[in-house]
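pipeline/complex-builder :: batch 7 item 3
reading input block
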Amino acid sequence: MIEVRNLTKAFPDGTLALNDVNVTIPDGDFVAVIGLSGAGKSTFLRCLNRLVDPTSGSILVGGQDVAPLSGRKLQLYRRTVGFVFQQFNLVTRLSVLDNVLHGRLGYHSTFSGMLGLYTEDDYARARDAIRLVGLSEKEDTRVSSLSGGQQQRVAIARAIAQDPQLMLADEPMASLDPRLSDVILGLLRGYNEEKGVSVLINIHVLEHARRYCKNFLAFNRGRLVASGPIADLTSELETEIYAGSLDAL
Amino acid sequence: MIAAAVFALLGALIAFLSSLAGGSLRRLSIAAALSGLLAVLALPLTPGVGLRSSEAVSATLLGLLPSAPLLALVPIGLGLSLLLSRRGGRVGAIVSGLAGAAALLSLGVWLSRPAQLAELVPVPGIMEGVTGLALFALIQVFTWSAKRTRLAGLIAGVVVGALAVTYLLSPDGQTKFPNAGGYYQLMRPVTPARTSELIGSYNAGLADLNTIRQSIDLPPLKPLKSVTDLAGAGLPQAISDQGYRLLRPQTWDYGGPVLFLMAGLLLASGLLHSRRPDRQERGDWLAGLIIAAGVTLLVPSFSATNFNLSELVKGGPFLRDFLDRSWPPNLAQVNAQNPSANIYPLQEVMSQMALTIEIALVGTFVATLFAVPLSFLAARNLTARSVLMRVSYFVTRAFFNVDRGVDTLILALVFVAAVGLGPFAGVLAMAIHSVADLGKLYSEAIENVDKGPIEALESVGASGTNVLRWAILPQVLPLFTSYTLYRFEINFRVSIVLGFVGAGGIGFFIQGAMAAGNYNQMVIGVIAIVVIVNLIDFLSSDVRRRLV
């Protein structure tokens, strides 16, 4: 269970990206995070795995506040959280297997990590994850020669190889052909159902959210303005959440 | 006078061609007037001789004004032309044309004058002021364009300029830069009465002087009637020592050609512009300023480097002789009767070339070993986390900048003195210089990596060192390799030159062959260099293209 209490993030330029956010996410949930661009969705996700340092508030994961963690403790926490990026963030000159093995680096000391001394278990988990995303035949291929959809599947495999307790995905389909969305969402949903791991996904297309997600969190200008079962996301509520979108343009 | 006319016509020709091409005519007028004014202020026009060559001075047009008041037409005309060019149009054009004509006329009159005596009058403060102004202007070039830095730049410029002037005027500055004080000299005319007085006193002392000359077997000197008697020789010491110089308007210094060229250009562009007043553009002032700055920098540089194509023509026969003696190449000389006198220059070139390549290989390799770790310390994006890292960043960067400024050849001379002649001195010099060059390129590659993978590896909980190893290194390694190969190409060429300062290799061979007059052996080395340089450049660029 994740409990977010009074989470606030102010950037050095003064932008209030998150303003006193309170939310509880039960284990095994599949949550769509919706809202306009710049509403704070991305910052919210990045606070959860501490790629962004919150200004104030707490984030309780399994009873432990992860907001003040640093150094080795932060690394140990981060390895339990998978993160899928919009731009995939792969090392494109390396092979698929090498990139997925990066998901295991959190389990290694600096020394064995430097030399790439992965264990048999690491390889087994990485290969399982690659099989799960359907890229077994591309295991030794350089990532740079894969298509965008395949690259995002490699990135998901990297997150899965971490054996995470929580999976975060920051608009994972935004850089892809719309037809590939079902593949990506299907993979994340399948993983969620099989392992019971919570998935939070930033999403732009509400139709996708309705089809795949159980619950939703809606942000507007840094505030959490609505949340609940996805069925409650009525078109009136939609209008409210996306209010001012013309201003934003 | 013929040369002067040629330069004036050349200026007119430039204006005419530019007019045919449809270019802005006001731009030419402004460029000519500005260059002319700068030449009036700063370029020497007429030499003034003393007794010894070290006493020779060269007066600018401004400095000559007391002796030649008619020359004032030049700056007045140029100034008027510049002022009226601001508005542009027909009036400015006509004035420019007239100014050009007036300048040509007054310069022509001055050039036809006979030799005359003038008294040196140093003007203090000019060189000091120009130095201060130059520093001020240099700072403005960097700071003026951005509003944020403009005020700070102005203040810094004034402070630095004033400090420079104060220093040059201080006792310490005057001992360190004795030439700066009174560098700018006016030429005051000498009255006929004073001239004959000087000549008279010289003639009076001539009897004693001739007695001395006779005792050391020198021919006696004749008494002077007027200064024109001196036109071909130096000034007598007695007159020169009192601060007098003999002005010879008919021999000109390099300011002369510039002034005639610009006057001709101004005359022609002004006349053409008055017929086509629409030939003017917005950017004329900036373009004119840039042209004037270019002329004022280039002309003294040509003069300082003794640039003279006729010397090359005179040297032609020597060049031919040189080529005759170097062909055909002497690849090997075998003498059955006297095997101890056998020489094998081609074989020698091969082994010396191998040494040259080996110096470049070792120098580049050692430099790479040190540059890789240093480049991480010199990358801005990796050193932002802590104060200690920031300090190491600035220290490493400073080391790179200083080291890059000291050329391999200079380092080699130092190391030859330290470790003796031989390849090791060359390798050391090359390695030390290349560390900075490579380190800077490497660190820029690190600063430009894609941040995505770094973020991704941080998010899986990898340690900082592992992020470096798996997110950054794979991205920069191909660039590192490419830069290293490129540096090797450069180092190979440097290694050739290192041979000349005693580091061995093909340069050493060529130097030896040349000193011994064995041009037909030296030419083998030259051919080998041409072949190997092209081969290495071709291979290296081919590999680099595949890498990136």
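note: The first strand of chain A starts at residue 2 and ends at 10.
queue -> next item
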